[in-house]
Structure formats: structure tokens, C-alpha cells
Write a structure and sequence with these properties.
Elements (H helix, E strand, L loop, with lengths): L3 E6 L2 E6 L14 E6 L7 H16 L3 H8 L11 H13 L12 H19 L3 E5 L9 H21 L5 E5 L8 H18 L8 E5 L5 H17 L8 E6 L14 H7 L4 E6 L1 H7 L12 H14 L5 E4 L17 H27 L4 E4 L5 H14 L1 H13 L5 E3 L2 E3 L1 H17 L4 H8 L14
């Protein structure tokens, strides 16, 4: 595991790198985080969200062709939508040996079917990888006694999920800002939630548990946040560092401080090694810049600039970065049991439009180095996984060929087709396969078959002698 630190001296923050393989992805990284109001959270929330996501696919993507065309997967537009042709393709693909299954870039139907099948299976077995119980924007402002009650009940439900094994692989909660207006409320929720959780779990903290701090405007808030957490750990007899934190980048002050210096490294430094990821809040950020609501979006140039600063600060120290939300939700326009054909078709178009927007946003985020993002509704989950799996499967054969060539000439620069590869780009290839395996786009066996190498052995190629 790479170890990097920020050191602050007279000239500002300096990145200290004491590591031989700075960009290797070690361990699992979630591909999303689902936010839900604390008042609605139960130990069964993740399962319910998965069931709703599967229902959305069953209703609005009755076969892999409809699914592929809804997402606008490569080659999907040319696939036959006739039921007989689809049945024949599905039968042929399902009869293939999964052990010998490979990505076929020249067969759009097979590619679309694989993305569909893996998305469907993921939603059935683990639709939610990361869940954040929300006491901020997704919850709103409520009387103190009401939020106190929800802090206790949500923590109790999370503890129940922890004990019963239904907890998501990554989990946590988001408090209100520690700015002047909401600091007392944020601190109170932090204390009540954590003390209740520890009581119900008999002193244990779930794996990959974090607390999210929103709307950071200066590093003093992060310093205070960490001190509060240290006190909670001491009271629970937990080692310092047991609780991870996430930091929200959604104000201009979180990008540049009042002296005009890049603020993110200083903010991260105040987390004292607890920071697991940086999360971007595009709508708060663009609003704080004075951008009119109708022009606030994931694609605004101001948002792209902020993301680049986040990457520059996070990548060297091994932090994950998470992109913001897609505001357009894939929801039907008409409700009820007795809808006309026109209403049913309008519902289908509305859901497909929402899927396509989310799919494109996720793909764009990934291309820009943000492999995690927010989901707000179960209907977004099919598009999330379709985007992630298509991203990795689409590039699988090409990246495998580049990796094989590089391994064959491990001590030399290499040329595959017209693409020049050196050690630095080979690290990118390793990251590609590591992330693809982590999210379930492909298996260890598929990578070994395609590259001729166990991925775990590749990092040693970059270690100095």
C-alpha cells in the first residue's frame, strides 16, 4: 500500500512521497455511494433498493436489446428488436461456457448482452456498495428532538444490519456542516449517532465506516471535526484512526484559501490520516460561484476545473474522489394500475431518458478519473452499473493486449499498434484491471486468461532494485 503524507513548512504544503508504486489501486473501491435521508433508513434499506432497481429493469428493459438501446450502448442502435431474434441471441449467449467467456468487441450483441447480464446479476446480489445515512441536504432542518430521535433510530438500524450481515460493504453517515449556523446541530448528531452505534454493536465499528463532513469552508472545521472524533474514540476505547472521514468539496474556499493557495492539501492534512475520499458537490459549488440555477450542471466548466484540482490533490496521496449527482431522475410520469398505452409509452421514454443521462454522466466522470459518484434513487442503479461495466468491458481486449506486450518486454518500453507504453502507462493498465475486477466487470480468471499474468504480481515490476 502506498504511503504519502502532506508536510507543511514555511513555504506551504509540500507533498512527501515515500513509496515505490504510487498509483497502484489496492483493495476494493466502491463505484458509487447512495444517499438517503436518516428518517427513512432501516437495516433492510439496501435490499429494498436492490429490489426496486430490479423491478425497474423488469419493467422498462424487458430484454437486453431494450436495455442496451435505452443506455445507448455501442452498436445497440443496429440490433434487431424483434422478439424471435432476441430470443435466439439470448439462448446462444446463455449456452456459452462462462468459464471461457470473452469480450467480443466485433459482436455488439454479445457486448450488450454481457453488460445487461452483469448489471442484472449485480442488482440482484449487491445493488448498493456504499450507503450514506444523510442528516444534511437529503434530510433538511428539523426540530432538535426529531433529529435526535432519527440519529438514535438510524444508528440502531445500522447496528442491526451490522449484526445480521446485511450491511453494505461501505457505510457511514453525513452530519450537517460545522460552519457557524449548524455547528452545534452537526456535533450533536455526530455524538448521538456514534454513541448509539457503539452501544448497539458492543464497541465495534463496521468495516469501511466513515463520517462525511459537508460544506467545508476552512481547515479549522476539519481540525475541529477530527478532535470530536478522537474524543468519541477515546470514550469508546477505540484506537485513534478507527473512524474514517470523507470531506465534501463544494465551496470555493475548499479549493482556494483566502491567501490564494490551493486549500485541498491543507484540508486533507487536518484529517490526520483519516480521510478516505473527497466528494464533489456540484450544485452547492456552482451556486456559491453565482452561477444561475438553469446553468448549474455536472458539465459546467467551473465544475470541471474544480474536479481537476481535486484530482491533483487526491491522486498523489491515494485518496478516492467521488463525483456529484445526476439531478434528472429516471422516474415514470404517470402512476396507477390502469394506464393507457400512451401513458405506458410516456413512462418508458421518461425512464429511458433518465437512464441515458445518468449513463453518460457516469461514463464522463470515469473518463475524467472519478470512478465513484452519487446515486439518489434506486432507478439510477441500472444506469450506474451499465455505465461502469460498459466502460471496463469496452476497453478490456485493447488493454489486455497492451498489458501482454508490456509484460513480454518488462524491462523495455513497448509499442502495441500505434500506442507507446512505458512503465508509467503500464501502471494505468494495472489500475484499469484492478478497478474492473473490484467492481465485478470481470473476474481474476478472465484477466489472467487475457493478459497471461496474475495482476497481483505486476506491481513488483515497478519496484526499484
Amino acid at each position: 500500500m502506498s504511503k504519502h503524507t502532506y508536510h507543511e513548512g514555511d513555504e506551504g504544503v509540500e507533498l512527501i512521497v515515500n513509496e515505490t508504486y504510487p498509483h497502484y489501486v489496492e483493495g476494493r473501491s466502491p463505484i458509487h455511494v447512495v444517499y438517503g435521508g436518516a428518517d427513512r433508513y432501516t437495516a433492510d434499506t439496501a435490499r429494498k433498493l436492490g429490489s426496486l432497481a430490479v423491478r425497474a429493469m423488469d419493467t422498462y428493459a424487458t430484454n437486453f436489446v431494450e436495455f442496451a438501446q435505452a443506455m445507448d450502448l455501442p452498436g445497440a442502435a443496429n440490433l434487431s428488436s424483434g422478439s424471435a431474434a432476441i430470443d435466439e441471441l439470448e439462448k446462444r449467449f446463455a449456452d456459452e461456457s462462462h468459464e471461457n467467456e470473452t469480450v467480443l468487441p466485433d459482436d455488439p450483441a454479445h457486448f450488450c448482452w454481457r453488460v445487461y447480464r452483469r448489471t442484472f446479476e449485480k442488482l440482484r446480489h449487491e445493488a448498493v456498495e456504499d450507503f450514506r445515512i444523510d442528516f444534511e441536504d437529503g434530510y433538511g432542518f428539523r426540530p432538535d428532538d426529531e433529529e435526535d430521535g432519527h440519529a438514535r433510530s438510524a444508528a440502531t438500524e445500522l447496528a442491526m444490519a451490522f449484526r445480521e450481515g446485511t450491511i453494505t460493504p461501505f457505510c457511514g453517515f453525513r452530519i450537517k456542516s460545522l460552519g457557524p449556523e449548524t455547528s452545534k446541530r452537526g456535533e450533536r448528531t455526530l455524538r448521538i449517532f456514534f454513541e448509539t452505534l457503539i452501544e448497539k454493536t458492543e464497541g465495534r465499528v463496521p468495516e469501511n465506516f466513515v463520517i462525511n463532513l459537508p460544506k467545508i469552508t476552512n481547515r479549522d472545521e476539519v481540525r475541529h471535526f477530527v478532535k470530536l472524533i478522537e474524543k468519541l474514540e477515546d470514550a469508546a476505547n477505540l484506537p485513534h484512526g478507527s473512524i474514517g472521514v470523507e470531506l465534501m468539496i463544494e465551496t470555493p474556499e475548499a479549493i482556494f484559501d483566502y491567501k490564494g493557495r490551493l486549500a485541498i492539501p491543507r484540508i486533507v492534512k487536518e484529517a490526520r490520516g483519516r480521510c478516505r475520499s473527497l466528494h464533489f458537490g456540484v450544485y452547492d459549488y456552482t451556486a456559491s460561484l453565482g452561477i444561475a440555477a438553469e446553468h448549474q450542471s455536472l458539465h459546467h466548466p467551473a465544475a470541471d476545473l474544480a474536479r481537476q484540482f481535486m484530482l491533483l490533490a487526491a491522486a498523489p496521496v491515494g485518496l478516492r474522489v467521488s463525483d456529484s449527482v445526476t439531478a434528472q431522475l429516471p422516474l415514470p410520469m404517470h402512476r396507477g394500475d390502469e394506464l393507457t398505452d400512451e401513458q405506458l409509452e410516456a413512462n418508458r421514454r421518461a425512464v429511458h431518458d433518465g437512464w441515458r443521462v445518468h449513463f453518460r454522466n457516469v461514463r464522463r466522470s470515469m473518463a475524467n478519473g472519478f470512478y465513484q459518484g452519487w446515486d439518489l434513487h434506486p432507478n439510477q442503479l441500472p444506469a450506474r452499473y451499465a455505465a461502469v461495466y460498459s466502460f471496463f468491458l469496452e476497453g478490456f481486449d485493447r488493454q489486455a493486449a497492451r498489458t501482454r506486450t508490456f509484460i513480454e518486454r518488462a524491462t523495455q518500453a513497448s509499442l502495441t499498434g500505434n500506442t507507446f507504453d512505458d512503465a508509467a502507462s503500464a501502471r494505468g493498465l494495472v489500475n484499469f484491471f484492478s478497478r474492473g475486477m473490484s467492481c465485478g466487470a470481470f473476474t481474476d480468471e478472465e484477466v489472467i486468461t487475457a493478459t497471461g499474468k496474475d495482476l497481483a504480481s505486476i506491481p513488483s515490476m515497478f519496484a526499484p532494485e
